[in-house]
Amino acid sequence: MTQATSTLAPACGIRSMTGQGRAAGKTDIGTVTVELRTVNNRGFKCSVRTPDSLSGSEALIESVVREHLHRGSINLSINLEHQQGQTPVQINDTVLAGYIRQCKSAMEQSGVDADANVSLDVAALMNLPGVQTGARPKGDDAEKVFQQARRVVIAALENLIEMREQEGAHMAETLLGDCETIAAHVRAIETLAPQAAESYRVRLEAKVQRVLAQYDAEVNPVDLLREVQVYADKADVSEEITRLDSHLKLFQAVLRGESPDGDKQSGRDEPVGRKLDFIIQEMFRETNTIGSKSAHAEVSAIVVEIKCAIERMRELVQNLE
């Protein structure tokens, strides 16, 4: 049995949105068992199921969950095993006796002989409104029971968060590996990109020379160089490379819990999934621009590899809180 604790440390690190948590603890009305299951969700969605003893506390329990979980679809179930001698349902003797009197009065008024062998179905009477009531504590007792159950909920949340952080750590490691892969590809593009203008100059000069040879004409080399320069300006991807490098550094900093200048962020408890998803969108935009600007075959092939890596990262990031 997991022991319930009263406090929960602030969330930190990278968390997955999927996980399970369970805890159990004793209360004044019996043993409470809490089970939590979470899956991916763009926002926060919490479904709470409680026994009659805690009926009406769903909103309070959800507020406890909101203090520690930011995203995901959460299913929380609370089960109660009553102490020996206690029953989950109480019979209201006054209401039951009233139903019996009414039944006997109706029999007399209808002319049924009181000595006739007519019996009342007690099981049927038990299902009438007001006969059975949940064993709900009242007043200060209800608040005390809720606080006891709250500690069990927090213990289950601790177990859930531990599992989500373990899975998140593995996902963060994979994402950092993809970042290194993309960075290596960007360095390759940085080397190959200047060759595009020279390759264009060679192709253009060869075509021009073939055409001029047919008409026995000449072209001013300055005009040829001017055309090459115009192409070089259009095909220049240095700005895109700089921005992509910046996005990569920011992405890695967020994963490591650092500020962009490399300092550790202390006490971070905010979810990072949305921020990482936005950074990935910017990375894809810059990569797409590089691919559309450059006509270099090797650069185009590298751009495809970068897009594949970014797509892998996008799928993982969508699973992060």
Task: Give a brief outline of the structure.
GO terms for molecular function: hydrolase activity; RNA endonuclease activity. The chain is α+β, with helices and mostly antiparallel strands. It is built from eight helices and six strands, in the order βββαββααβααααα.
Structure description:
- The structure is a single chain.
- By secondary structure, the chain is α+β, with helices and mostly antiparallel strands.
- The chain folds into 3 domains: 19-87 and 137-165, Ribosomal Protein S5, domain 2 (2-Layer Sandwich); 89-126, no CATH class; 166-317.
- It contains 8 helices and 6 strands.
- Strands 1-2-4-3 form a 4-stranded mixed β-sheet, covered by helices on one side.
- The longest helix has 77 residues, at 139-215.
β-strand number: 6
From N to C, what is the helix and strand string?
Answer: EEEHEEHHEHHHHH
Query: How many separate domains?
Result: 3
Helix content: 55-70%
**Widest sheet: strand order?**
1-2-4-3
Cofactor: a divalent metal cation
Protein name: YicC family protein
Family: Belongs to the YicC/YloC family.
InterPro entries: YicC-like_C, YicC-like_N, YicC/YloC-like
